Amino acid sequence: MSTGFFGDITPIKYEGPESSNPLAFRWYDKNKVVLGKRMEDHLRFAVCYWHSLAFAGLDPFGGATFERPWFAPGDEMAMAKLKAEVGFELFTLLDVPFFTFHDRDIAPEGASLAESNKNVRTIADIFAKKIEETGVELLWGTANLFSNRRFMAGAASNPDPDIFMYAAAQVKNVFDVTRELGGQNYVLWGGREGYETLLNTSLKRELDQLGRFLSMVVDYKHKTGFQGAILIEPKPMEPSTHQYDFDVATVYGFLKAYGLEKEVQVNIEQNHAVLAKHTFEHELALANALGIFGSVDLNRGSYTAGWDTDQFGMNVPELTLAMIEILRAGGFTTGGFNFDAKVRRQSLDAEDLLLGHVGSMDAMARALVAAAAIVEDGTLDAHVETRYAGWEGDLPKAILAGEKTLDDLAAHVETTGLDPKPVSGKQEYLENLINRFC
Length: 438
What we know:
- By secondary structure, this protein is an alpha/beta fold.
- The chain has two domains: 33-377, TIM Barrel (Alpha-Beta Barrel); 382-437, no CATH class.
- Helix content is 47%, strand content 10%.
- It has helices spanning 39-43, 49-54, 76-94, 103-106, 113-134, 161-180, 203-224, 248-257, 270-275, 280-290, 316-328, 350-377, 379-387, 394-400, 406-416, 427-437; strands at residues 33-34, 37-38, 45-48, 98-102, 137-142, 185-188, 194-195, 229-232, 242-243, 264-269, 293-297, 337-339.
- A hairpin with a 2-residue loop joins strand 1 and strand 2.
- Helix 5 packs parallel to helix 6.
- The mean pLDDT is 96.
- The active site is at 102, 105.
C-alpha cells in the first residue's frame, strides 16, 4: 500500500541506454548475465536506512533542511512506524534486494536500554512482515554506539566499564534482531572508537578492550549459530582525531594481534578510503590479499573536503577499477553494495531520493560491464603476470620458500655477474587500456 510520500511514482524499470526517463534504469538490467551471473547477484544492492530516511539535511554548519513527515513532533513510535512503511516503499520502488540499518535509525531511544530495545523490536516486527511481503532482505544490521553522549569517549574502548557493558547489551539486542530477520552480516561500526589526545588515554588498555569486545561478539555468533559474516568498517578520522580502525591494513593488524583475522572481515567505504589517503581499489585489493574482504559501502567523497560527504557514487572509471578488484576477489558472498550515501541538503524532493539511487545503480552497472570486459579481454591481467614472470623460475621460488639465505643470494650475484636492468611499468598504456572499456 502506498504511503503517498512518493506521489504517483511507479517502480523503476530498465528501459535501456536510449531512454531519457530520469526515473528509469539505462544500464542496470538486473537479469542481464555478466560473467555467468545475473547483474543483481553480482551487485547485491542495499539501501541504507540512515541517510535515506533518518538524515534531516544537517551538515557541520547548518541545520535540518528536509521536512519529512516522520520528523514531525508527536508520538515518536508512530513516526518510526511511518518511516518503516516509507522505507519499504523506497526499497520496492528501486527494486533492490537488500536494506541495512542502525538500531537508532529505525526506532527512538527510550528512557532505559530495555525501553530502547523494545522500541527496536517493535519496528523489527514490522520489518519481518515487510520482508515476507516484498522479498527485500536484510543485508546487515548494526548498533549505533556513537550518537548518544555516553559514547563520547567510545563504546568498547571507553574508560568506563559500565559503558562497555551497556554497549555490549545494545549490540546483543541488534545482533539478535539481525539474525532473526535473516540478516546476512553483522557490522561493528566504531564511530568513536579512537581518542582525541594521549594526555588522557591509555592506548594499550583501549585496544585490549576493543579486542575483547570483538571476541565476545564472535563468540556469540558461534553460540547462536549465525551463519553470516562479522564485519568491521575502517574509518580514518572524524570524529576522533585517531581512529583505531583507520584503514584495512590497521584493521588487519588489530585482528591479527587478537587472533581474529579468520573470524572478521571488512566493510570498505570509498569515502573512508579517500580520507585515509588511499584509493578505493587499493583498500579492496588489500582486503582481498589479506583474506578479509567482506562488503562495501558505496558512496564517494569530495577530494577537496576533509570530512565524510557521503555522495552517491557516479564516477564510472573509478567504480570500474573497484569492480575489477571485487571480481578478482571472486565477488561477494554474504556482502554487497550498500548505498551509504545521502542526497544533498538542497535536494528536497522525495523524487531526489530515487534519482540518487537510480543514477548510482546505473553507474555501478556500467562499471560491472566494463570490468567484466576488461577481465574477459585478459590484456590487463596478462601484463601483470608478465611483469612478475621472473618469479616463476626455480631460484626465485626457492627464495620465497625460505630455501635460500642472504649469503646464498650474495654469492649468486657475485658468481653470475648479475646486472639487472629496469623494465617499464607501462602505467600510461594501462590507463589508456582501462579508458577503452569505460
